[in-house]
Amino acid sequence: MHKSSWQSRRRGRRSQQQNTWFRQPGSHERNNAGAQQSPQGSSRSDDEAPSTSSSSAGSSSVPDLPGYYFDPEKNRYFRLLPGHNNCNPLTKESIRQKEMESKRLQLLEEEDRQGKRIARLGFNASSLLQKSKLGFLNVTSYCRLAHELRVSCMQRKKVQIQSSDPSALASDRFNLILADTNSDRLFTVNDVKVGGSKYGIINLHGLKTPTLRVHMHENLYFTNRKVNAVCWASLNHLDSHVLLCLMGIAETPGCATLLPASLFVNSHPGGDRPGMLCSFRIPGAWSCAWSLNIQANNCFSTGLSRRVLVTSVVTGHRQSFGTNSDVLAQQFALTAPLLFNGCRSGEIFAIDLRCRNQGKGWKATRLFHDSAVTSVRILQEEQCLMASDMAGTIKLWDLRNNKCVRQYEGHVNEYAHLPLHVHEEEGIVVAVGQDCYTRIWSLHDARLLRTIPSPHPTSKADIPSVAFSSRLGGFQGAPGLLMAVRQDLYCFSYN
Q1: Dihedral sign from CA coordinates of 304, 305, 309, 314
Q2: Sequence-ordered list of residues with C-beta below 8 angstroms from that of 410, at least 6 positions apart, any chain
Q3: 239 Ramachandran zone, left/alpha/beta (phi>0; psi -120 to 50)
Q4: pTM for this structure?
Q5: I want to staple 31 with a disulfide (CB 3.0 to 4.6 A). Which of 35, 114, 143, 169 is the partner?
Q6: What does the alpha-carbon distance between residue 249 and residue 8 come to, in Å, rounded to a whole number?
Q7: Which segment of 75-79, 312-316, 448-452 scores lowest on mean pLDDT?
Q8: What is the rounded distance in angstroms from the CA atom of residue 84 to the CA atom of residue 233?
Q9: In the predicted model, what is the mean pLDDT of residues 151-166?
């Protein structure tokens, strides 16, 4: 009888201890050994909460309970629900989203409050100029560090977009922006509210401070097919056309379409609008690239599933190269007769365009990433190549010895097809991560110079599209970054 009574009292104490974890813990209830006592000095038993920390709460004095989440703001536990058949379930995904939004708002506040930033410790405008005068910095290093300093001081300003259809600007969302070679035009792909996509060209000549005002020339029609890849094409003259790769839908096959850029200009002689130049039936292209190489003049390439097609616009002749994986990224070299391709398997290889068949030797270079390659960029001297993949890895490869010479840390990607922007004139690398943060690195030493949060809440459907140029608006323009997200366009210009 005595033993049964002792076991009953023991179970009662254990039940009481577990129940205290579910109550709203005050500061005196969450103290560990060595922590300060509550100001109220209320008495309590010697039973103390375990020292295991809750990863969600971020406090080392809060016990981690399986299936529960501790909210430090409300100072209580909430049950994690599975997420189905619940009106407003609290799940790990919603908790993560809330934490990311809180971090984004904090960074935006810091961006607005901190006018001047320092990219490198000990370097500002006066110290750079003084070191240059004393001979401690050569011209190349001075220009590179000056660009880094100006990049770190860019401030966000909203751009006013003028259009013949203002209602469309308020509803259509930016999906992609792509600057031309001279950075005086911006090709846009917008998601239409009723479904599908439409295209436009923004004239950037009015992109001047203090009033940032641009005009959008829209196309008359839109497509209900997904745009998989876009690039500028130089057929009649530099950037005279836009090459679009559209996915097939139902019984309509996929195609690669060349659109004249003049199609987007409002006024034409005689009132007639030019039609499409040509369209090529191509099944499911993942990527495309236009050739400026003289040995592949007026040609474009499309990366398909397990195949690469090089097509001549003039003759319609095609060269086909079989691969063992989907080709997600492409770029032609300018001087060497090579086409570089990045695959879903992680392989990067170059095709020698002089090879007329698929015999031995048509793969000129082979590099390997651990994940699907989403972007390849050839540097100007064509001795190095930069690539990014779906694991968030960005590598700089030396093509002379097929060796990775530099890696850029901080990019976030898990499965998205995200582009990479390399600007050698300013010596920077720009990429937008799946977390909607735009990161800028130094091309020279891979230092992360700046992290720019999105002006809108983080969402997988609202990843910003960016374009960086040393001459926004043409040859007389100033360097800066353009960011399109939702219905808004922002400019981060040099001060």
Answers
A1: negative
A2: 439, 441, 448, 451
A3: left
A4: 0.77
A5: 35
A6: 70
A7: 75-79
A8: 48
A9: 86
